[in-house]
Amino acid sequence: MRRVLWMAAVGLSIGGGLLLSFPRPDGFPHEAHAGLFPTCVGCHAGIMAGDTAASVSVTAENCASCHDGVDLKRVEWRPSEPPPTNLAFSHVEHVAEVEEEGEEPVRCERCHVRPGEERMQVRLASARGCMECHAPGQGHLEVTLDCSTCHLTLARATGLSTDWIEAIPQPPNHERPDFLFAHGDIAEAGETTCAICHTRDSCERCHLNAERLPAIAGLEENPRVATLVAGRPGEWPEPPSHDRPDWGWVHGEVAREGIEECATCHARPSCAACHAAGSVRLVDELPEPRPGGPQGVLLADVRPAGHTADFVMNHATAASVGAPDCAACHTQKQCADCHDAPRKPGFHPVDFVLRHGPDAFGNETECAACHSGEAFCRDCHMASGFAAGGRTGGAFHDAVPDWILAHGRAARQNLEACTTCHAQSTCLRCHSAKSGFRISPHGPGFDAEAAADRSQQACGICHFSLPVTP
Amino acid sequence: MIGLRAERPVVWAVAALVLTLTAPCLARAQGYRGSVTVSGQWLEIRGLQPDSLPESDVSGDGTRRQLDDGTVVTCIPNGFCQWYGSGPEEAVSLVTQDVEVATWPGITGLSGYVHLRGRYGSGDFWPRTDQEVDAIAAYVRYDRGDFRFMGGRQFRINGLGYYNFDGGAVLWRGFEPLRVELYGGWGLARNLNAPRTGDLLEDADEFAPGDRGLLVGLEVGGRLGEVASGKFTYQREIRSDELAFYSERIAGDVRAQVERVSVDLSADYDLAFEEVNEALIRVAAPVARGFEVAALARRYTPFFELWTIWGAFSPVGYDEGRLTVAWTSPSMDIRLEGGGGYRSYEEADAGADFIRLEEDGWRAFGRARWQPSPWFVDLSYRADRGTGAARYGGDIAVGRYFDEGTYLAIRGTSSQNFSEFRLGERLSTGWGADGAVRWRELSVSGGWGFYWINMDGQPRVEDWTQQRGHLGVSYRFGREPVVGEGAYP
User: Fold this and answer.
1) Which of A266, A412, A421, A449 would you mutate first to test chain B, the one with the most B CBs within 10 A?
2) Full-prediction pTM beyond 0.90?
3) A140 and A210: one domain?
4) In this structure, which of A135, B88, B112, B225 has its CB flanked by the most CB atoms within 10 Å?
5) Which domain holds residue A328?
6) Tally of structural domains, chain B
């Protein structure tokens, strides 16, 4: 049984192979008819009158006029479908143009027979043949000639399938490293050249400002190309100009000189990463991304040099000297939004009130830069019972036995935190020269003279008389 | 009752602004730009409440005892044993309303800016929710040639921080790149936009200043090409009766940028207590493709104004080092950041040595943001341990951008909090959602969150849940007169 199956399989393979190897009637055997047809137009009579499919290929009736089954055996001939093409060639017009220019008439074999071959060794015309006259010495894809001399634009070459379009070879100049940044000039110099292989859909994949660029706006749209590019993300490599170390600071000037160049890759959301909405009017000149279209380069995480995660806590120096120009990205209101607490959630996480203790003690950034210790922090601590009127019993600080003995060190190290619960009067119960335990709060090296020199009033809170005479 | 805190100079400034707005100039450079923002927050808060028993009702002896449920109490001999338990839950709300307008009346160099903020709140729980309207800024500016004049309520940003005052400022830049600016006027309490003599400080402290005070300052700045910028600031705040200073300080700031390496140097010095309040150097540089490093060394000692006694308590500072590393891959839409810091406190020379307290601290953080457009995922973790308190916790956010200014995100958070000086551990866990919608010049943002707060180690502090929400609406209007001239005056 196994042997039978093996034989059947081998038989099928051989049979199938033979079947596929028979020549198919997809090309007229011109060479077999050499000597029978002295001229081409005998069969291709219509070729000089107008380009129709019938005039390009012989019909079964043409064959039957000789292969009638009497003098010659009958043949089965099915003319092949003309291949899909984007050629704009017309024999009639070509002949007329040649005549107009006073050139010698072009014979059929000039294009359809390779040099050195017989007249009836007919082949389809090749691009190389066209180049011999139109651009001698140039390759098909390197030609400097306008491609529309021979080709239809892609939008008009309606017979091309998406597979065919996808297989269009890429001209060598597209492989130049700088092609992406130079193709705009090329496109502006010769719109129709690009249009042979591209429609507007190709450009809109990357160009956010496609409709504002004449070279693109002049292109037609085409659903086949739209299908091909659908879902393919745009490509926005970083141009060499952006490599400047000071690019972050000079880009505004460059943008002012030609915002349209920026608009290729950047829509308004790009700028929103740094520039507060509405703060730079130039941004409004950038396009809005099309719904469902490419969004362009998103700079959500691109910040100026030095704007690392900790910068929000450490921007004081930059803000003080105003360098770089803070106003290029930030409005004055933004300063007030944070520095005038309580304005809005944003600077701190939303549940910051539940976890702000370590931040307040650690002073990673100065709380007093935005909050008044007396009128903001203490106000809340009092209302929520944390401060409880500044009791001195130590019940709140229950983690440290004999808190009263320890509090001095804690206070010196965290005095700002202490003042968010305790008013001056709390401490004065013990630390005043006027009453109470009269415990001096001054540390070693305290310069009473310097302090008194500037505020005798402050000294007077605790002292009846000045300890020093300024 | 809405009380307008604007003082006379502000009234003048607002009047001048109105004049500039209505000036009959139809020059090309005329224009205005502004915004109206209304923002509201609502949240539940649960505080603490002191409680006590007569000492005789609590077993044991000494100042530190325990109740039957384990609550640690502090006892005063022949008095009471005290502790803190849960207070009542309260819901509070805060609404702020901002109106800001910048105007260019058409006279070259003349502009005005006003930013008013109204606050309306419920109850006394949340600070500064009394109904009030503040002028954050309201000034007229004339900027022409070598000079710039500003008059009205304005704020200064310099090495000493962020200061508001009512008065004038004159900038001279006739010898560029040198810039000299003299400013002065009636001082305002820092971060309050209100005079020192107002209710806010008076209610907070019985020794609140009795005089509004005058502020004068001098800034000298300069630029060394595109490489470096610097500013020196001298500022003095003095009682108008000249009896005392409120502060006298100097600051120096330098920022240098060579290629992509930036260096910040900054120091401010309190002349009254002869103390460096803050001195830092920060260097940020790209070290490899996609990698950026920022290192910071800092000394910090708190600054207190001279109307308080705090400066005389000789607060000590700490020295700190921090390092942040960031890696960005635009092709992978990823940004990773991590870092940490260590700080060590100066010897305090106070308190009993046998009681151990933390004398240093460290912090570490990590953050990852993945942004495969239009989605984003944000993960972060932070640990902070030092004198006073410690915290360990992380956040997660997942969201989607729909358009410019339009997004929706879901967030989660969890953190453990410890206080060095107070028993117990608080664990807060929560989640919420927030989003924003922008349509032309109108934007609306809002969010809501739900949190579980669990307390361990304080038997009489109950677990509770908190809800909070916020909603904001903002509308921008007007146009600036000159393309590319940037933002606000």
Assistant:
1) A412
2) no
3) yes
4) B112
5) 309-339
6) 1
